[in-house]
Amino acid sequence: MKHFCFVLVPKATMIVLATILIPFVTMHAQDRSFAYNSNRYIAEQPSTGVKKDLEVEITQPEKTALNFTLAVINPENEKLTLYIKDSFNNTLHREVLPATVKFEARYNLQSLEDGQYVFEIRSGKNKVAEKSIGIKTQTMVNRLVSVEK
Hints:
- Keywords: Membrane, Transmembrane, Transmembrane helix.
- By secondary structure, the chain is of the alpha+beta class.
- It folds into two domains: about 1-30; about 40-135, Macroglobulin (MG2) domain (Immunoglobulin-like), CATH 2.60.40.1930.
- It has one helix at about 1-30, and strands at about 40, 55-60, 65-75, 80-85, 90-95, 100-110, 115-125, 125-135.
- It has a four-stranded antiparallel β-sheet with strand order 1-6-3-2, with no helix packed on it.
- A hairpin with a 4-residue loop joins strand 4 (about 80-85) and strand 5 (about 90-95).
- The radius of gyration is 25 Å and the shape is flat.
- The model is unreliable at about 25-30 and about 45 (pLDDT under 50).
């Protein structure tokens, strides 16, 4: 009977430790995100009357940095989902946007390689807007020639 307890105690201890530590590991894994601001939407009531179209705008505040600002005007307060995808249609980032009239957020794409990326906004399974961004690294080589006498 002593041998049976010797085997079960370490296993039970490992299960308890795993139960405690796994949530911390998953929280840490989600620290690296494309979005990096918290106050990014304005809560307003939709106007009644004529249905207005969704407006999406992407701007680059600094031309030398790969930081982009996404602004979504959603007059109908629809529940929308943002996807950032690469040229192979792989989803790099997914975010449920709040059902507000205006949503604005900044995204850091500094860690992405050169290529085409798409900001896709969906309402359920329907694509309602799409904006494309191309990232290309340009290098310049200057060769100097000197003639010696």
